[in-house]
């Protein structure tokens, strides 16, 4: 039953035949709902505040769902579930790398979507990375999580994607310790391991290239066979 304290879910989809029935179904399941036909409408609703979760279609006219997802994850704590007709692994990985918490392919089961919404709402608040971690140095790099940026000792700046930024933050939080792929996936806010079965490996590979650690064997982000990954070296807070 809905009340003023029920989670508010924003549904963003340019297809009315999906947007309106989904909004109605969520309302019957006890959620408060708002709908938007495009990213511009969604941004207006989000600016009003109070949204607890956004369901965003990737393919929309104008600003894409991926762009809107990136905006949300960089400027707010609102979790995102992406909708897409694309079921390829690379598409799911791309969604995670833009900061999505889950990825659902069309056509989808409304009841499965409800289960995923509830799972994300249970999980995300405890898993949100905190910008309060501040800037940290490892090796010749300084990581600024609030700007998704790496700066080396020469002053060269390296931009990170949302997924790379979160993954690096997780490594710095657990420096010297082996972190399993499943745990890294959680810390990157991915909801379903099956949906992102190679997401961690792909993001690690890109991150290694950006820090010049793509020689074999890697020396900074070390692969622990059967276990996961480990960041080697000391981590220091930068004032």
Task: Give the topology, please.
Elements: E1 8-12, H1 16-28, E2 32-36, H2 39-48, E3 53-57, H3 65-75, E4 80-84, H4 89-97, E5 102-105, H5 110-127, E6 136-138, E7 141-144, E8 149-152, E9 157-159, H6 162-173, H7 181-187, H8 199-210, E10 221-224, E11 228-231, E12 235-237
Parallel strand pairs: 1-2, 1-3, 3-4, 4-5
Antiparallel strand pairs: 6-7, 6-12, 7-8, 8-9, 10-11
Characterization of the model:
- This protein has 239 residues and is an alpha/beta fold.
- The protein folds into two domains: 120 residues, Response regulator (Rossmann fold, 3-Layer(aba) Sandwich), CATH 3.40.50; 107 residues, Winged helix-like DNA-binding domain superfamily/Winged helix DNA-binding domain (Arc Repressor Mutant, subunit A, Orthogonal Bundle).
- The protein is 38% helix and 21% strand.
- The protein contains eight helices and twelve strands.
- Strands 2-1-3-4-5 form a five-stranded parallel sheet, sandwiched between helices. It has a five-stranded antiparallel sheet with strand order 9-8-7-6-12, with helices on one face. Strands 10-11 form a two-stranded antiparallel sheet.
- Strand 8 and strand 9 form a beta hairpin.
- Helix 6 packs across helix 8.
- It starts with 7 loop residues before the first strand and ends with a strand.
- About 3% of the residues have low confidence.
């Amino acid at each position: 039953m809905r009340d003023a304290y029920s989670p508010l879910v924003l549904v963003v989809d340019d297809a009315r035949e999906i947007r309106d029935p989904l909004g109605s179904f969520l309302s019957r399941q006890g959620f408060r709902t708002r709908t938007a036909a495009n990213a511009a409408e969604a941004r207006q609703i989000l600016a009003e505040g109070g949204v607890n979760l956004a369901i965003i279609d990737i393919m929309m006219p104008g600003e894409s769902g991926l762009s809107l997802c990136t905006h949300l994850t960089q400027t707010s704590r609102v979790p995102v579930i992406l909708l897409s007709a694309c079921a390829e692994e690379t598409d799911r990985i791309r969604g995670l790398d833009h900061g999505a918490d889950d990825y659902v392919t069309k056509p989808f089961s409304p009841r499965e979507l409800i289960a995923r919404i509830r799972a994300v709402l249970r999980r995300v608040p405890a898993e949100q990375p905190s910008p309060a971690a501040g800037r940290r140095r490892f090796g010749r790099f300084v990581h600024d999580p609030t700007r998704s940026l790496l700066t080396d000792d020469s002053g060269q700046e390296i931009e990170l994607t949302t997924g790379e930024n979160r993954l690096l933050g997780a490594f710095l939080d657990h420096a010297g310790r082996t972190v399993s792929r499943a745990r890294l996936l959680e810390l990157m806010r991915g909801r379903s391991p099956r949906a992102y079965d190679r997401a961690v490996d792909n993001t690690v590979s890109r991150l290694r290239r950006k820090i010049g650690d793509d020689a074999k064997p890697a020396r900074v982000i070390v692969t622990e066979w059967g276990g996961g990954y480990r960041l080697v070296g000391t981590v220091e807070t930068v004032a």
